[in-house]
Design a protein that fits this description.
Largest sheet of chain A: none
Order of helices and strands of chain A: HHHHHHHHHHHHHHH
Strand content of chain B: under 5%
Largest sheet of chain B: none
Distance between the termini of chain B: 72 Å
Oligomer: heterodimer
Strand content of chain A: under 5%
Distance between the termini of chain A: 60 Å
Number of strands of chain B: 0
Structural class of chain A: mainly alpha
């Protein structure tokens, strides 16, 4: 046989090298749900660090009585921007980021229902964030902190009206949040359409992963709860710039109208924010307990129930406004009612762990932290739902402690669990387990050190948003301890950032399925290919990968 | 891959063939309409709450007139757009263009009538958005609706102009349907706005 000389070909690299501008273009112009999801999470982490630094300055100012680290005006801007950032530029993009990245992978499809709408949602969110932060530069410049908003994250009227809020501060707040809210709505409609229309063959709603269920209800809440805020912000801008009288009490307008509209948004919003943590726990706890989720139908029922009940509890933020006692009673009762499905969820997660082979790795540690701390948050929540109790502690540090237990002790712990769990899938690298444990313990100790004492200073009468306080009221020690807790939290976050950087640059290569998991995203390579699945999967149970790995004992036999 | 082959159920092909889920565009437009409805609810709610709370005139009874003709036009445009859709389904392009143009004209007249009404209110009755609570809520609620009419008209015009230029609109039947749904939504919202502003606020209160 004659030998034929083929021209020698260079072996083609599997991952071709791109120049910086090409890479930048690929990211900016992308409509891929994974890249957009990642960009959401990374920008959320960026804003998390920024708002965290603000919180640290706040705690530094409050560490001792009559402190003057910052002046009162700056202090007002700090807590306003801290709250606004954490809610709208950290919580909301985390919702969008996690659901964008994971929902298509979990339901076995190649992209979201509307990929370009998805890209629009991300960029308009980022524009909103930058618009909000541009307030530091606009009008007055950096030294005077510009026209950064200073009226608190819920921006009560009439404080935001032209007469009391001169300059552009309230406008930056209203427009920045309005614009980023548009992005959230776009992303939520996308998630709903994706889950309802793009599931792979065999994935009925009853087999859909719990994560996707929770994000579906979450998106529903975003769709119905964000427009009230947008409406209120449009009205505010009409008031400020066209001289309308919505919230102008001198012309017969009502400041309480703002409160109603804000909290019609605001209370569902806290469920919107905590749902990603619910979603993550419902995936992580079963995997690390080696047991299927306990009471799956009850979990779905509970999350759907929260999706409706939480729309009718808003005025428990307004017990001190002077509503009728019928309203107070109604909203106290509905607020306690919403605790029931939440309690069901806590019980079911605990029952999932009960009797399981617990693998005490970082994701599970964060989940356990969540369970305990969120329980405390839920209990103080029930206390605050009792109207007469609320009259005593309204706008005190007790409330601050309560919602930081939900949003830090709950949401942030849940998000960390999720990041540790899915990092190998997203980057193809394993996170360092030892650093992860350091991160958990430092952050957990720091968090509790900071926020447990705040319950007590709240009970002792320390008002929220106070710039400083006099000695001799029994607040000094607890405030100092709370501020010391910040050191631990900061150390924890530094370890976390170091872990992210180190592991993504020089980490151990992750296998496709490092946790021996059961949902479809672990059937792809790590990181997943641009098209996710070479061939769309067909599933027959709620644990498709279990079926793959145990062909002799598949789940679908029992469905 | 070996593991994957084993676990593919025997009836996988059949399952794949029979697997039917709702159209994503349908779901998308439905939820867009839901979120928009909530936005309108807030403005309509504000209108209702502030009925009779204006400290100074002019009051609705002094200046408002029922826009009967404009409302009939807008409601009829919901019918003409359905006729246009049906014509498109039967591939009768000429009839489609006719009904589509009728829809645009009816919607356009509604917008024109709103403009005339506002002109009268502003220049003759001296009612602006800053005059009193009635002005504030009236202009924002009716204006929000009118802005949706404008968006609808822009899309209707895009379809009309491209069709006149020879674009094969029959290939876009699905999108025409979604635009039609949006237009029905704008009409449906007018039922609410009309009831709140011209019946509840004008006749009943």
């Amino acid at each position: 046989m004659a030998t034929i000389d083929y021209p020698l070909q260079e072996p083609q690299a599997l991952t071709p090298e791109f120049s910086f501008s090409e890479t930048l273009y690929k990211w900016v112009a992308t409509v891929d749900h994974k890249r957009l999801g990642l960009m959401y999470v990374v920008s959320a982490l960026f804003f998390f660090v920024v708002a965290g630094i603000m919180a640290s300055v706040i705690r530094l100012q409050l560490a001792a009585p009559l402190n003057h680290i910052v002046d009162p005006d700056t202090y007002n801007r700090l807590f306003t921007m801290h709250g606004t950032t954490m809610i709208f530029l950290v919580g909301m993009p985390m919702v969008a980021g996690f659901s964008n990245y994971l929902v298509p992978l979990m339901i076995g499809t190649r992209d979201m229902a509307f990929p370009r709408l998805n890209a629009f949602g991300f960029w308009i969110f980022l524009l909103g964030g930058f618009l909000l932060y541009f307030s530091y530069i606009g009008g007055g410049g950096l030294s005077g902190a510009g026209s950064a908003p200073d009226m608190g994250w819920f921006a009560y009227a009439p404080l935001t009206e032209k007469a009391f809020s001169r300059g552009a501060a309230a406008d930056y707040w209203a427009l920045g949040v309005l614009v980023s809210g548009l992005g959230s709505i776009a992303s939520a409609i996308n998630v709903v359409a994706t889950t309802l229309c793009m599931r792979c063959p065999g994935m009925t709603l009853s087999r859909m992963p719990m994560f996707v269920w929770v994000m579906l209800v979450d998106s529903w809440l975003i769709i119905v709860a964000l427009p009230p805020l947008s409406a209120a912000q449009i009205m505010l801008e009409l008031d400020r710039h066209l001289g309308a009288n919505f919230f102008d009490t001198q012309s017969g307008g009502s400041a309480v109208l703002w409160q109603h509209m804000f909290w019609i948004f605001g209370h569902p919003e806290v469920y919107i924010l905590i749902f990603p943590a619910f979603a993550i726990l419902s995936e992580v706890i079963p995997i690390f307990s080696r047991k299927p989720l306990f009471g799956r139908p009850a979990m779905v029922g509970a999350v759907v129930a929260i999706g409706f009940i939480s729309l009718g509890v808003w005025a428990h933020h307004m017990f001190c406004v002077g509503m009728t006692s019928w309203s107070n009673t109604f909203f106290a009762a509905s607020s306690m009612l919403v605790g029931v499905p939440t309690g069901i969820k806590i019980f079911n997660w605990t029952a999932t762990m009960y009797g399981g082979k617990l693998k005490m790795e970082t994701p599970l540690l964060f989940c356990i932290g969540f369970l305990l701390q969120f329980l405390v948050a839920g209990l103080t929540g029930i206390m605050l739902a009792v109207a007469p109790f609320d009259w005593q502690l309204h706008d005190s540090y007790f409330v601050v402690a309560h919602f930081h237990f939900t949003l830090v002790g709950g949401l942030v712990f849940g998000l960390f669990a999720g990041i540790y769990y899915w990092f190998p899938k997203v980057t193809g690298k394993l996170l360092d387990e030892k650093l992860g444990k350091w991160h958990f313990w430092l952050f957990c100790v720091g968090f509790n050190l900071t926020f447990i004492p705040l319950h007590w200073v709240g009970m002792l009468g320390m008002p929220r948003r106070t710039f400083t306080y006099f000695p001799g009221r029994g607040w000094e020690t607890w405030n100092l301890i709370a501020s010391i807790g910040v050191l631990f939290q900061t150390a924890g976050i530094l370890v976390f950032v170091w872990n992210l950087l180190k592991s993504s640059l020089r980490g151990v290569q992750a296998p496709d399925d490092p946790w021996d998991a059961w949902t479809l995203e672990w059937a792809t390579s790590s990181p997943p290919a641009e098209y996710n699945f070479e061939k769309l999967p067909v599933v027959r149970s709620s644990r498709p990968l279990w079926d793959l790995k145990h062909p002799n004992d598949p789940d679908w036999k029992f469905e | 891959m070996a593991a994957q082959d084993q676990a593919i159920p025997e009836n996988a092909l059949e399952m794949e063939r029979e697997w039917k889920l709702p159209d994503r565009g349908t779901v998308g437009i439905i939820f867009l309409i839901i979120t928009e409805s909530v936005l309108f609810t807030m403005f309509a709610g504000a209108y209702v709450i502030y009925i009779g709370k204006s400290l100074t005139g002019p009051y609705p009874k002094d200046v408002l007139e029922m826009p009967i003709l404009a409302s009939i036009c807008l409601f009829s445009s919901s019918a003409t757009i359905v006729f246009a859709e049906n014509a498109l389904k039967r591939h009768n392009l000429a009839l489609f263009k006719l009904w589509w143009a009728a829809t645009i004209l009816l919607g356009g007249y509604f917008l024109f009538a709103t403009g005339v009404e506002w002109h009268k209110l502003i220049y003759e009755d001296h009612l602006t958005i800053s005059t009193n609570l009635f002005g504030t809520t009236f202009y924002s609620l009716v204006g929000l609706h009118a802005s949706h009419v404008i968006v609808g008209l822009v899309f209707l015009l895009v379809v009309f102009i491209t069709t006149m230029m020879g674009f094969p609109i029959a290939t876009q039947e699905r999108r025409v349907k979604f635009l039609s749904w949006y237009w029905h939504f704008v009409d449906g919202i007018w039922v609410v706005v009309f009831s709140v502003v011209y019946i509840l606020g004008l006749k009943i209160w």
